[in-house]
Write a structure and sequence with these properties.
The structure is a single chain. The chain is an alpha+beta fold. The protein is built from 13 helices and eight strands. The strands form two sheets. Strands 1, 2, 3, 4, 5 and 6 form a six-stranded antiparallel β-sheet that branches. Strand 7 and strand 8 form a beta hairpin. The longest helix has 19 residues. The protein is globular. About 5% of the residues have low confidence. Bound molecules: iron/sulfur cluster (2 copies). The site of one iron/sulfur cluster has 13 residues, from helix 12.
Length: about 280
């Protein structure tokens, strides 16, 4: 089992994952509400292979141009392909039923059928942070996650023993001014640090959602009535069909999308990760 686990992890890395870990379905079940476990999607599921990809290049973090940030989504197709490749690999090589899970596959908006954050945390790829409950990796900073659920028993990784957030600089800032870089950057983020640990985290999802969580089809459908009411024909066209769907990743309604990443732009964990990866900043 150990050899197969390592082989599958290496396969995911070879397919382009920046980080990969294994979560046990039995352990996940102990944490999530009924109906939100991997074996609710695949009967008999035993393991979840979670892979993470850096969402942006270093340069992206220095731009204020929303289109540049938005276009980085094009790279996410590669991230999603890892999950499918891993699921197929397990079925073909080991004969266990597997399915791939990627963020945009459910039309459930910001109430997902399964939480990739929980899967990533259980696979030891990072821990929840003050900013919007994002799973932060010490090594990679902000990652985008996908997963393959399988009935194959694999050797699970453990959640990280030490939380990645708060960074020592944030602890010291909190002690001096009762705030952190992410809290200063955004009023959607609130919380408290006690003895160097996150004691309370408050994230006002309704504030963040309009800037960062405008999810694909759900956001478009919700705003369709407003788009049809737009009186300027050029703007209506822009909102309705984007730039004529030039790219496969170009969603309808891209003119109304937010792609906010301000909390991560100022986060010292993320900034350090970018520095480590690319020797810039
Ligand atoms: S993504 Fe933007 S809106 Fe959401 S918590 Fe971070 S800074 Fe605030
Ligand atoms: S800036 Fe980053 S490390 Fe600091 S509290 Fe916010 S999320 Fe945590």
């Amino acid at each position: 089992m150990k050899e197969a686990t390592e082989r599958i992890k290496q396969f995911a890395l070879d397919k382009g994952a920046d980080a990969v870990g294994i979560a046990s379905v039995a352990e996940i079940k102990r944490l999530v509400p009924q109906g939100y476990s991997p074996d609710d999607l695949l009967k008999g599921a035993k393991s979840v292979i979670v892979s993470g990809n850096r969402r942006y290049t270093s340069g992206t973090w220095f731009t204020s141009n929303i289109d540049v940030i938005h276009r980085q989504r094009a790279a996410m197709g590669g991230r999603d392909a890892v999950a499918l490749a891993v699921a197929r690999f397990i079925e073909e090589e080991y004969g266990y039923a597997s399915i791939s899970i990627v963020p945009a596959m459910f039309d459930s908006g910001i109430n997902p059928v399964i939480s990739l954050k929980v899967l990533a945390e259980m696979a030891g790829l990072g821990t929840r942070c003050m900013a919007g409950g994002i799973i932060l990796s010490r090594e990679h900073g902000l990652l985008g996650f996908v997963a393959a659920i399988t009935t194959m028993e694999l050797v699970p990784d453990r959640p990280l023993a030490e939380p990645v957030c708060p960074h020592p600089a944030c602890i010291s800032m909190w002690e001096r001014r009762k705030t952190t870089p992410c809290m200063e950057a955004c009023s959607a983020i609130g919380g408290r640090i006690e003895n160097g640990r996150l004691k309370e985290v408050r994230w006002f999802r309704q504030l963040c959602a309009t800037r960062a969580l405008t999810t694909m089809n759900g956001a478009y459908i919700r705003l369709l009535a407003d788009i049809m009411d737009e009186t300027d024909p050029e703007r209506r066209k822009y909102l309705a069909i984007g730039q004529a769907r030039r790219y496969i990743e170009d969603p309808p309604g891209r003119g109304i999308w937010g792609r906010c990443i301000e909390c991560m732009r100022v986060c010292p964990v993320n900034r350090n990760a970018i520095k480590l990866q690319h020797q810039v900043v």
